[in-house]
Records
---
Amino acid sequence: MPQSERSEIIKEFLSWLGAKTRQTGATRQECIRHIQLEITNMGAEEKRCEKYLKDCEKAGLIYVDGLKFKLTDAGKNWLQRKVS
């Protein structure tokens, strides 16, 4: 997958997760479903979607609070830089 496409997927996912974070966060399944349905138009396997989650968590862009994923301050800053 081209780097620009991957970046777009991550931007879209972090924007969505940012909105969910302002409420209660999103479950792992909600995150995977969002990546799968909304971003890749059902073109991604669940393993690939899980990899996006792990990569974002490893980079410090998201974190798990109990059973909910939430956007970190670093994730918000990354998103602001990429969207501007």
---
Amino acid sequence: MSGSIRLHPELGVNPRLAFCPRCGEDTNDVLLLGATNRIYRCQGCDTPNVGKPKDGCGRCGHYDVPFERELGPSEKLPGSICDPCKEELQTHQAEVEAGGVFFKCSDCPTTGVIKAGHPFAEKVREHHGIKAPGICGVEFSKAEGCPSCSGT
């Protein structure tokens, strides 16, 4: 039967509350996992997958995705992005289209935008030859002056 959920023998539809994968706040999502109650971790990108992926990792497509563990009794899972994060992402997108530059840190989860008109944003765009409204970004590390984790 298409669209049906295979029930877990003890947990039934196995409902799980969800959190925003971006900020970690609770969302109103309820995930019905049914018999899917295991985490498999991709050896290519280290992403956890709920249930054994048939077509490789959901993120990178890698096929080496071994069983890691059973889900905990009240474990929450990542769901959809929450409304405040959606609004922030739209604001970031508009700033980048105006000439700003996306940034992320390789050492911490910080992401953001260097505002349009900032000398650093202009230098990054000039260096890469990407004019607004083209998408442009840069990656920092703690050693390279991440605004969040480098302490500068």
---
Amino acid sequence: MIATFAYPMGGEMSFEQSDDGGHLTSFGYGRGEISSLHSLIVGETGPLGGPDTAPAAYEYEADTETATVTTYGGQTVPAHVRPRPDSVTYLVRVEGPDGTYELTAQAEAGEGDPCPETYDTIARHVIESFEPVA
């Protein structure tokens, strides 16, 4: 992995895959770690081809937003945001040692009632806590 997230710490690796197209790693924060009724998924994919920004890569998607987030070292980058009734996902693309990588933070309802405003705050906070692995 090229990145780690300072917030939240912990979590368990929920998925890992490598192939000729790159590498995907996801960490899950399930029931009981963040909340008994909600969950958080943090992921990294890359290296990728194509656009260097997430909004450019997903410009074809409907019902999405573009935001500017501040990542490690005060760098501002455009984020692609997928607000849904039961989840909010932030995606950003950053330069890694061997190409462009996509970082993902998704907060979502588990068994509880959806809280989209809270999910937006959490997903944004996680994306903005990105730090490169030393």
---
Amino acid sequence: MFTPDPLNTLVIAKHEFELGHSRFKLNTNYRLSYDEDMKGCLVFGEWMTLEDMKKHFTLYIPVLQERLKALGLIVDGKPISKKAFIERAMVHTYGSGKRRLHIFTIGEYKENCFAFYPMQGTKPEEFKQAYEQYVRLVAGDYEAIDDGDIVWGNMGIPLAYGNIRRDEAQYIVK
């Protein structure tokens, strides 16, 4: 079972701003690492106080988990069954032969949609991987989000690999 690392996570900017040598953009995930005394943190290589972090960023995994709940993909704090997940997933296939790509989406494309990008394999292997990615996200694992293997969107179907369109500003949890 995955145990979230309390010292490292993902955040998303509440607005665009500059700090130090970095420009932070809306709709972009950033890695956050707390310092040992938990009085500050590094985001995208820029040190800031926890107050500044909370002013500029939102912890991203809880936001995604709320979106999963809204879709009925988290029930009583737990993931739905693999069977229920597979029944709800829509498969988009790009390419052919050995170079095909399956993208599994769940949700309303223009409101709250998740795309899962498993490694290429047989369809059953890809469904299994997509489900495992989902279960880990429910548990608080941010690796698949950080790697772009799970992407959230609210602006239409995936146009290409990793390119599900999103506008976090209109759906961010305040």
